[in-house]
Amino acid sequence: KKSANIIQGNALSIDWESVVSKNELSYILGNPPFIGKQLQNEEQKKDMDLVFNGVKGAGVLDYVTCWYIKAAKLIHNSQIRVAFVSTNSISQGEQVGILWNELFNKYNVKIHFSHRTFQWNNEAKGVAAVHVVIIGFANYNVSDKLLYEYDGPRSDAHEVKIKNINPYLLEG
């Protein structure tokens, strides 16, 4: 009988392969913390420095971007697919060039699917309503990518098959 193996600790300072071998993984799915650069505490800033060691301009990135780098490192030379719910700011403005340059050029990441900005509501008391994206990626290419577009932040998605998704989550 198998049961869950729960590891308590800082996901950014733990070697993920010490938790589960990448040879046993097919997918990594997550909803990392949504914390912008202005709201990061000292420990979170240290995590950013640890993960983005030496990456120029990384100080402007949202905390969620650390999970992208950690995942990209782990999936290198594998068939593992990753998908994260993230703040939509990682696909806008100055964060795009810094994060995606690192992911594309250093880790050979390819975006396989994405949900453009939509409003995420949780079911908890004091409902949180944030604007998010979902980005699925791997370090190998697929011929057809799926882009999920929304007419508005609260509308239903419609799927578009395209050849390439750029870091602004547009075709191109």
Write the topology of this structure:
Layout: E1 27-30, H1 42-51, H2 65-75, E2 81-87, H3 93-107, E3 110-121, E4 129-138, E5 145-150, E6 157-162
Estimate percent helicity: 10-25%
Q: Note the gap between the termini.
A: 47 Å
Name the quaternary structure.
Answer: single chain
Number of strands: 6
Strand content: 25-35%
Poorly predicted runs = none
Structure characterization notes:
The chain is α/β, with parallel strands linked by helices and 172 residues long. Helix content is 21%, strand content 26%. A 6-stranded mixed beta sheet has the order 1-2-4-3-5-6, with helices on one face. α2 (65-75) packs parallel to α3 (93-107). The mean pLDDT is 91.
Quick synopsis:
The chain is of the alpha/beta class and 172 residues long. The chain is built from three helices and six strands, in the order βααβαββββ. It is 21% helix and 26% strand.
Give the key terms.
alpha/beta; six-stranded mixed beta sheet; 3 helices
